[in-house]
Amino acid sequence: MKIGKFLFLVFFSISVYGQKIPAKKIIKVSKLANFLKDDVKKQLSEKGKITPEKLASYFRDQFSERYYYDYKTVDKRFEAYSKLYQDAEENHTSRALDHLGKFSSNPKWKLPFNYQNGEPVNAYALRHLARQHKMIDIAFYYFYQQKDTKYIDYFTEQMQSLNVALKENKFETIEDGNGVYEAFRSGYRVLNWLEIHNLFLGEKAYSDEDQLTTIATLLQHASYLFEINQEFKSGNHQTRGLSALAMVSILLRDFVDTDVWYQHSMTLLAEHMRKEINEDGFQFERTVHYHISDIGNYFYVYQLAKNSNIKVDDFWTKKLESLFGTLTKIAFPDKSAPVFSDDTDTPWAETNDISDALTLGFLLFENPTFGYFANNNISRKMYWYTSKNQLENLKNIKEVEPDFKSYDFPKTGYYILREGWANKDKMLVVSAGVDEKKPDHQHGDILGIQAFANENVILPNYQVRYSLKDLELFKNSMTKNVALVDDELIGKQYSSNKGGSGFGKFKELPKPTVIGFQKNKDLEVFIGSHDGFENIGVKYVRQVINIENDFWIVKDNFSSDKKHVYKQVWQGHYSLENAPNLLRSSFSNGSGLDIYQLNKVDKITTDGARGKQWSVVEKKETQDFNFITILFPFSKFDDRIDEESNILDFNGWKTTSEIITDASQKFFKKNKCLLFGVKEVIIKGRKFEFTENVDVYIEFDKNTISIQSLDSNTFEVKNDLVSKVVEPLEFFIFK
What we know:
Blueprint: H1 3-16, H2 38-44, H3 52-66, H4 74-84, H5 88-102, H6 123-131, H7 133-144, H8 150-168, H9 183-200, H10 208-228, H11 236-251, H12 258-276, H13 288-307, H14 314-330, H15 355-365, H16 368-373, H17 380-383, H18 388-393, E1 407-409, E2 414-418, E3 427-431, E4 448-453, E5 456-459, H19 471-475, E6 483-485, E7 492-496, E8 504-508, E9 512-518, E10 523-530, E11 538-547, E12 551-560, E13 564-571, E14 582-586, E15 592-597, E16 603-609, E17 612-622, E18 625-634, E19 649-650, E20 653-654, E21 660-661, E22 665-669, E23 672-683, E24 686-700, E25 705-709, E26 715-718, E27 723-726, E28 731-734
Antiparallel strand pairs: 1-2, 2-3, 3-4, 4-5, 6-13, 7-8, 9-10, 10-11, 11-12, 12-18, 13-17, 14-15, 15-18, 16-17, 19-20, 21-23, 22-23, 23-24, 24-25, 24-26, 25-28, 26-27
Helix pairs in contact: 1-12, 3-10, 5-7, 6-9, 7-8, 7-9, 8-10, 9-10, 9-11, 10-11, 11-12, 11-13, 13-14, 14-15
């Protein structure tokens, strides 16, 4: 297609195009053939007529070729599915019975109304009814129940009840906050109904009339999705809707309007890719949940287009592959991933399972690094979106361990310090980003950290669930590993959404600034600040230092003209027998974490909820203060910090040496030293002076002395021969 024609089509679809398929009315089955493209009409017409029987037969043939798998193989596929996923029956049955018990086949679609047991339906439940999530389970329940046809009837009747509600204008609107035809809910409904339609296509009880009614309903949904998504709107809600629009336009491309739908949806989806997949490869909402959700949105379309030999732009391919690559780069050594902000798949879980997504990535791209994280089986859900050949390829997964260790996502704001990929290796991640356009899913964890060591998450974050009453607690700072001041939390002005589903967001979040990041050296360093406490006159900087992959130092720096209470919050179950300067947690394999305060603190309090616990370390009533905190993972009891020893020893790093210095805290190991709050140091008879109290790392041998700034500020260092201005993380050598 020439560029001019392409641009005309895009402009035409967005600005001028008048659809022939109605957006707010279901086409009657008897009239459906009138909306076919002329060439299809000509192909199917006999004596100027196309019977519903012929039309239904035609679309069964098209679905057999175009859908992710051939509906004629459903019985064999279901038999294999039941053997492969032996817990599936219990799961599908539980969910199906839940939906069947709550809603009749003819429910209302506008609040207020009640469940079948008389209790009121809330907004959260209505949204999930609108998505038709559990109708999928009812479709599987049909097969588990020896094909009891009442479950096909339940599906067709509940779909028809929505069509009646549309006709009578008795459904929740977008303005109400719970729109049944809102892009996200409508898009998910289309995805689910398409899966059910293909599952039932070979069933006698799913009549020609039923099949064509479903097709007519899908066309109406697509027409409405096109109508309400004319312009780009940031976020996964529109992406889900556009994905559904593209799917319908591919699978039902025999109808008028579908070419324009396809072009329009693919153009806007590409715009979402450009604007919402950051240059570093992370989905802009900064969560694993929504990152993987977008993988699905793009995958469903990409896979269908490939099945139909419809060319997809290389830009699409590269962006989709980059989404999978990002998951490998955030992974813990045990192949799980950290919890980032609004991750909601498994409430209170401390990791994310990325293996299913990367199994899909391997099937699409055959990248052996994806294969390293992949499973031998596709997930239960995606089993029904993969082809026979792809399932066969799972028998020969190629695996290559990633060739990267520490990594950063500078646009998204995640900074990862990773030892390696052995099970007991260590990893720490710093969250230092807030999306400028849509921080709705952001938690109050700016400059918060998570850590993994010895096969355990030792400093966790927690997945959430929107419908739980304590979402605000788990979304804000008391359930994060952060620093705080007084009673200030990082997330401010929390408010729930209009629809009342439970989801809430912060109207005010700090702006983080990354001052420096150094990776893949013996000393890895992150330095950052945020302005979250400037409203009460406090400046704040956090430094995180990875010491030779043995332990970490976290230094929290507060300065103010007035006195405040400064705090650190640490997630985990800790014993306090050596408090306030030492907290200790231990895990089932005998490993643990020691949190040691080098500077004197005043108080430790503990609190918790939902089986989780955290400790708050406090320094009271002071203007300026630095927490200098050792995070010391140990693999076994003998390797812990020896709290009974008079000499502190951190894997060979000690606090005493012959080096002369005025540093407030210092560590030494052979020819290396870490100095905090130093203004003067004498090494090998040479005196170095700094213009202010700063943090530095020094190495020396018989010929040279190397000094690196670990400070957040620019400063000057001088000795008897030279004077030099030093930037954060700058490294220089004195000979």
